[in-house]
Structure formats: C-alpha cells, structure tokens
Design brief:
Shape of chain B: elongated
CATH architecture of the largest domain in chain A: 3-Layer(aba) Sandwich
Oligomer: heterodimer
Number of helices of chain B: 12
Largest interface: A-B, 43 and 36 residues
Number of domains of chain B: 1
CATH topology of the largest domain in chain A: Rossmann fold
Number of helices of chain A: 13
CATH class of the largest domain in chain A: Alpha Beta
Mean pLDDT of chain B: 86
Largest sheet of chain B: none
Strand content of chain B: under 5%
Number of domains of chain A: 2
Shape of chain A: elongated
Radius of gyration of chain B: 21 Å
Largest sheet of chain A: 6 strands, mixed
Bound molecules: adenosine-5'-triphosphate, magnesium ion
Order of helices and strands of chain B: HHHHHHHHHHHH
Distance between the termini of chain A: 56 Å
Low-confidence stretches of chain B: 1-10
Helix content of chain B: over 70%
Number of strands of chain A: 14
Strand content of chain A: 25-35%
Number of strands of chain B: 0
Structural class of chain B: mainly alpha
CATH superfamily of the largest domain in chain A: P-loop containing nucleotide triphosphate hydrolases
Order of helices and strands of chain A: EEEHEEHEHHHEHEHEEHEHEEHEHHH
Distance between the termini of chain B: 31 Å
Low-confidence stretches of chain A: 319-334
Chain lengths: ~325, ~280
C-alpha cells in the first residue's frame, strides 16, 4: 500500500453546458490514502467534477489523472481502479443484497466463485449478512447506502468517489456510513467526498476544497480553513449593553493586527479575532475584572466551517440556512 | 500497485473485448430475467390492456363488426392484438431505461470496467425474451377463447418470429426515448405516443373502412404490415385492400423492422454515448 503520491489530480478542468460554465479552471490534488472533502453551494460544480473524474463525463479542457491514469486517454484503466457512489443508492431493488453484489462482481469480471466469495465477504464487513437474502426494496435507507458502498468497493478501488453519500439519511444511518468510510480509508482507499454537511467534512476529511462557480476557492485542512478566516476569536457577553463601548476598548487591545472589535448591541456581545488565543483570553478577563464590568460570559471561539463557507462563497450551506431560518421557511411554505 | 503515468493503456485485447461484450450482456440479461420471475404481476399488468381489448372486441363489439372475408372477427382481431402488444412493447423498454438512468444504475455501469455495449444489448435481449413470454401467454389465452392457426407449424412459428422481429426493432426506439425523457414519470407519458402508433393500423379494423387519409396512414404503419403478414401466415388473411403495401405484407413485415433498426439503433447508441456530454 502506498501512502504517498497523488491519487487524484485535476488541473484546470473546464466543462460547459451551453453558455453555463459548470467547471471553470477547477484544480485539485488529493494525496493517496487521504479523505478529500469537496464543499460548495448548490450548482458549484461538485457533481460535475466527480463525474469527470469518474469517467462519466468528457471534459472540455484541462487534465485529470486518477489512480495514475489519464481520464480522457485511458478511461478503461481508470474504471478498473475506482469506485463511485452517487447521491441515490444505485442498487437493484428487486434483487437481494447478495444477488446485487454477485451481479456487480460479475460485471467487474470476477469469475462466479470469486464473485460469490467477495459478496459474502462484503456483506459481512458492511453488516448486511442478516439481510443478504432480502430484496433490497425492503432495506432501510442506511442499509441501501451500505450496500451501495459495498458495490462500489467490490474491486477494492484505489480511489472512491462519494457524491453526497449521506444526503437524506437519519443521524444513525449517517454514522454507519461514516464508520464504513473510515474503515475503507484505514484499508488504504483514497476518498473524494462531496457533501452539503460541514460536520461531515469536519468529521471525515483530512483536507477540504471549497468550490464555487466551478473553481477551487480554498483548499486546506479543516483547521487551516478555520484559521484562514481569522483563527480564534475572543468573545465577551455583558449584562448591561451600556458598558459595551468600554468592553470594546479592552478587547481592542488584544485584537490581532489592530482589527476593530465587532459589537452586537442586541446580544450585548463584543468580539475580535486574536492571534494567541489563551493569552488574549486571560488578558481580557483580567482587564474586564479590573474595570469592574459585569460579565455574563466570556470565551474563546473557533470559527465553524459554516462561517468559513459563508466567508468564502457568500452563501450559507443548506443545512445551516435551514437551521437558522425556520421563520423564513414557514413564510415560503405559507 | 498501479504503474505511474505513461504506462501503456489497459484496453483489453480485441478477442477479450468480444468475450466480455457477450459475458456482460448475459449478466444483465440474467438480472432482467430474475426481475421477470420475481415480479410475475408485472406481466399481468403489461398484458392487461391487450387481454381486455381482445375480450371487448371479440365478445362485446365482435358481433357488430364485419371486416369482410370468411373468417370471424376473432380471427381478424387476434393477430392484430399480438402485433399491437409488440408495438406497445417499446414503452416497457423506454420505462426500464428511464428508471435505470434516473436511479443512477446506468451511471454505475458506466463507471465500471464492463463492456458498455452490454448495458444496451442486455436490455435488448432481455426485452425480446420478455416479449416471447408475453406472446406465449397471449397465444394461450387466444386458444382458450377458440382461436386456432390454420397455417401449419412452420408458418405459425414464422408468424411469431415476425412479431418478435417487430418487437426487436422497437427496442431501439424504446432505448432512445428512455434516454431522451427527463425522468421515469415522463416515460409513463409515452403512452400518448404508443396508443396511436398501435391503434392507427390494421390491428382492429381494416384501413379500407377508415377515412381515406387515416386509412393511408394506417396502411403504411409498420404494425399493419406485421399484423397482415401474421394473418396470412395463420391462414386467415381477411380482406386486404389492393394497395401495394397491403399486397406485400410479408415482405414489409421483414423490411419495416429492418428499416426501423437501421434508423434507431445508431440513434440509440449515439444517445447513449452522449450521456458523457
Ligand atoms: N446536464 C446538464 N445540463 C445543463 N447544465 C448542467 C447539467 N449538469 C449540471 N449543470 C449545471 O452545471 C452547474 C454545476 O452543477 P453540479 O451538479 O456540478 O453542481 P453541484 O455542486 O453538484 O450542486 P448540488 O449541490 O446542487 O449537487 C449548475 O449550474 C448546473 O445547473
Ligand atoms: Mg451535486
């Protein structure tokens, strides 16, 4: 097993649909044995990128190399080394779980005996042994997803593409899928994962690429991205809004690069980005006490990926927008 | 594991490619036959319409229908119903193709190192098998309501072969339409296309009894040629007009499907390849 080297390389990928530029100079390099998250608002081009890398779509420009083979010139060689699971479990509803895996095994050109053995092995590994003889239409969403994943790793692919692997799943099923992905990665598979859920990227991805309007706007580790938009913030909540200006003065003394503190009167809150989080926090706490201000809460906050996403793309993620705007949703529903 | 870039392309040797084209096709066919076996109720649904129409036409309207010639209306309508069932078959193909495209199964196949032709050829072979089963069931029902072929064994077999020939040609129409429709719900709407295609023909009434313009369309409908040819082979040609197309039903029942295949097979294949656009 190789853990160094590049498993997926995309250079200046371009894809047009009529006048629409779905991909417009998309770059990405994924190291072998890692999980790369691909985040972006709706229509950013995530699915398009995955479909090009998985040889389903022809590219209009640029170059892509997957598992050592050029997707445009050697698609067959690429297909032998990849697995793909899209947003909908692409398994056969009428067949049983075992029949599905055997069929896909035959289509991956395993002989009958090996296809059966591999099916049994995967059913066991994905916790589907008990349901192996059941028609897939009786499976739960999570079971379907796991069968879908099992089908996509029949040949132990070097690179696995997952396009929104947990969309529409309940939290328990999502956890099951996450566990499965971690197992696969522990076994040496490189995973490229698109998702709408930032916590999913946070949980699974070693690195995250943020894509917007068909190009990569940022690429880093989850922590790196969070630091990139200002790192830690000291945040103070007062009991009396009238004291906010004095508190702001104190916070300003520790703010990174002389950044101006943000004040939120309604929340009686003042905060600022800082470089050395713990030192800044202690300094502010002491100064506030010395000044005799009545503090309701004080803390050090790391930006969430949601904030990173908002800052980089100017959009909220679906999940965050849903969570923070229930009122707006009822409005549109009414 | 893999060689770095610059290694020779791993396209399999031509004879291996041919082998896998057949092997993969067979794997897909086996899956579709499993579907057929596991969902016998689907056959009932599929055959419901032809069965109900034949019962209606034979028992309800039959006495009022005089299509000329010596045979009874039943002898006229039965071959028509066989041909109509084959004609409607392209909807099943289109529906199955649309469902697989919708659910991502087609994409999964396309991302695998299998023979791509098998996705289409497997569909074709499985659908012809399904159509043969449809015909067997319909023929059994026809026999129950008193229909017989007077044409001898060979002619009767030839008649069924011509019916399957038409069905085979329409597979490519089905694949093309299944790939063209935006989703499986839209595929259901194809009935609006299938209905006139099956009905404006000599299936239930001779075109000579229709208004001139409609009769001309009906006469030249490939379904009519197959229906008329099958009537001839069953030994009960019924009354035929003296137009060229009606006088050459046997020939045209061979030629029409070949022509349809020649046009629609390349279109369907091209459409399939365009999935990567
Ligand atoms: N087949 C197509 N025909 C025309 N336009 C398309 C097609 N597929 C994608 N697009 C357009 O290309 C852009 C990128 O789409 P893509 O599906 O890659 O986005 P995405 O990041 O996966 O979005 P989502 O989060 O909604 O899945 C969108 O503007 C979309 O409308
Ligand atoms: Mg998408």
């Amino acid at each position: 097993m190789r853990t160094t080297g590049t498993a997926v390389l995309a250079e200046g990928l371009a894809k047009r649909y009529g006048a629409e530029r779905a991909l417009d100079g998309f770059d990405l390099a994924v190291r072998r044995g890692t999980v790369q998250g691909l985040l972006g608002p709706n229509g950013a081009g995530k699915t398009t990128a995955v479909r090009i890398l998985a040889t389903l779509l022809r590219l209009d420009g640029g170059r892509a190399v997957v598992a050592g083979h050029d997707v445009a010139r050697e698609p067959h060689a690429v297909r032998k080394r990849i697995g793909l699971a899209g947003q909908y479990a692409a398994v056969d509803e009428i067949l049983t779980g075992r029949q599905n895996l055997e069929m896909f095994g035959r289509l991956f050109h395993l002989d009958g005996r090996r296809a059966r053995a591999r099916a049994d092995e995967l059913l066991e590994r994905f916790g589907l042994s008990d349901a192996a003889g059941m028609q897939v239409k009786a499976y739960s969403g999570g079971m379907r997803r796991r069968l879908d994943l099992a089908s996509s790793v029949l040949l132990a692919p070097e690179v696995l593409f997952l396009d929104e692997p947990t969309t529409g799943l309940d939290p328990r099923s999502r956890n099951e899928v996450w566990e499965t992905v971690r197992d696969l990665v522990a076994g040496g598979t490189t995973v490229l994962l698109t998702t709408q859920y930032l916590d999913e990227a946070d949980q699974l991805a070693d690195r995250i690429a943020v894509i917007d309007h068909g190009r990569t706007v940022a690429e880093d580790t989850p922590d790196g991205l969070k630091h990139g938009i200002g790192g830690d913030r000291v945040q103070v909540v007062l009991r009396d809004a009238a004291e906010l200006p004095r508190a702001a003065g104190i916070v300003a003394r520790v703010a990174a690069d002389g950044a101006a503190p943000d004040t939120d009167v309604a929340e009686r809150r003042v905060g600022a980005p800082v470089t050395d989080g713990v030192a800044a926090l202690t300094a502010v706490a002491r100064a506030l006490q010395d000044a005799g201000l009545d503090v309701a809460d004080i803390g050090l906050r790391r930006p969430t990926l949601d904030e990173v996403f908002l800052r980089l793309t100017g959009h909220r993620t679906e999940a965050a927008a849903d969570a923070t705007a229930p009122a707006r949703r009822t409005e549109t529903a009414a | 594991m893999s060689a770095p870039t610059g290694a020779p392309a791993l396209a399999p040797a031509p004879e291996r490619r041919l082998y896998w084209a057949f092997a993969d096709c067979w794997t897909i066919v086996r899956r579709d036959l499993t579907h057929l076996v596991k969902q016998p109720v689907n056959i009932a649904w599929q055959l419901g319409f032809p069965i109900v129409s034949v019962l209606l036409f034979v028992y309800v309207f039959g006495s009022a229908m005089d299509v000329g010639g010596e045979g009874s209306y039943r002898d006229y309508a039965m071959p028509g119903m066989f041909a109509m069932t084959m004609a409607f078959g392209f909807m099943n193909t289109a529906m199955l193709v649309a469902v697989e495209k919708d659910r991502g199964v087609t994409d999964r196949f396309r991302s695998m190192p299998m023979a791509r032709s098998a996705v289409v050829s497997g569909r074709g072979v499985a659908d012809v098998c399904g159509a043969a089963l449809d015909l067997a069931v319909l023929a059994a029902i026809a026999v129950v309501v008193g229909w017989r072929s007077d044409g001898g064994v060979l002619a009767t077999l030839a008649a069924f072969a011509l019916l399957l020939h038409l069905r085979f040609a329409l597979i490519w129409v089905g694949v093309l339409l299944g790939l063209l429709v935006p989703n499986q719900e839209a595929a259901g709407g194809l009935f609006a296309l299938a209905f006139p295609f099956g009905m404006i023909s000599s299936v239930f009434t001779p075109p000579s009894m229709m208004p001139d313009w409609l009769g001309a369309i009906a006469m030249w409908n490939p379904v009519s040629s197959t229906a008329n040819a099958v009537r001839e082979l069953f030994g009960r040609p019924g009354t035929l007009g003296d137009s060229w197309i009606e006088q050459h039903a046997l020939l045209m029942a061979v030629v029409w499907p070949l022509a349809l295949t020649a046009v629609f097979l390349p279109l369907a294949v091209r459409r399939f390849q365009r999935l990567s656009r």
